[in-house]
Amino acid sequence: xxxxxxxxxxxxxxxxxxxxxxxxxxxxxxxxxxxxxxxxxxxxxxxxxxxxxxxxxxxxxxxxxxxxxxxxxxxxxxxxxxxxxxxxxxxxxxxxxxxxxxxxxxxxxxxxxx
Length: 114
What we know:
- By secondary structure, the chain is mainly α.
- The chain contains 5 helices and no strands.
- Helix 3 runs antiparallel to helix 4.
């Protein structure tokens, strides 16, 4: 009986660890900047500015992945709002629309838009 309890506990702990890894992966927002530049038709200056802004967004999201579940939604919303404010300044209207679509799809696919 003790062996059965220990094995069930270990299985449960392993599943929790796997779920934590999956959740942490959802917050990794790294992108291929070369491909993003092509998709958005960015100039060299825009690519550099987008890299800087997006790297900050990636850092924010990585930090958010480590906080308690209760406060994540508000923090995600804040990080997205900050990212979009900077991107709106860097990108033209059409580029911004494409970026917004890409970001929304990414957040949706990772389950972070809830």
